[in-house]
């Protein structure tokens, strides 16, 4: 370890939940409704740069060697969190979903369904923790830190006033999340009607960056937000942990790429919504024209 550097060594966070008998709280009909809604939105709940993951779920390694974040995050810490906790979530979820309606679904869909409007079903914790941890690993890189650039920097300035104000809000969210949980930078592009949960920022305008925090395994996917950056806040009570993450580990390139994909997906969704609305209006007009035609025919006198 380099002199003067402080390594992040987590204490044991997010204890693994033992696998328990699964009794899903949704029916086939609710699943089909979800699939229809998903098709309409073209999977825009999916994180901006995270590829789809299908069951049987596998343990995905971080995108760098386990010692690559030293001296700022030790190999021991990363090995423990990835090799034990992250692995445990994958193994437990596979056990929970085998032979159920969730078997073979995308991980994002498992998260959305088992969040169940806040009445959380047993597989949610494992599914969301898998997704959150993968996103967390990919939010960091060796020789990270620095400052955001490009469109990301411009939106941060627009929505927070300055990069310093954003940093303060992000640090505050991380340090005030009690117990286990996460602090996020997300792109909020929805229409304030998320359908699955209470919107945490209902007064905010759409198409803007927001900082939010979430307890345990909850993540912005259930609010229909696009996650861009996350920090695991278990050790956020240590001020140096948040500073090390922001100054030495965060991958602003990954965050910027996620933002571009989020904006593209949001624009695609808007286009889909416009096309669907135009089609509905056209169909309604056609139906009205047919009805008028039938009415006019019924008014004609019958021939002798």
TrEMBL record:
Residues 58-140 form the Manganese/iron superoxide dismutase N-terminal domain. Its EC number is 1.15.1.1. Keywords: Chloroplast, Iron, Metal-binding, Oxidoreductase, Plastid. Its main location: plastid. It is an enzyme of class 1 (oxidoreductase). Residues 263-304 are annotated as: Disordered. This is superoxide dismutase. The gene is LOC116203225.
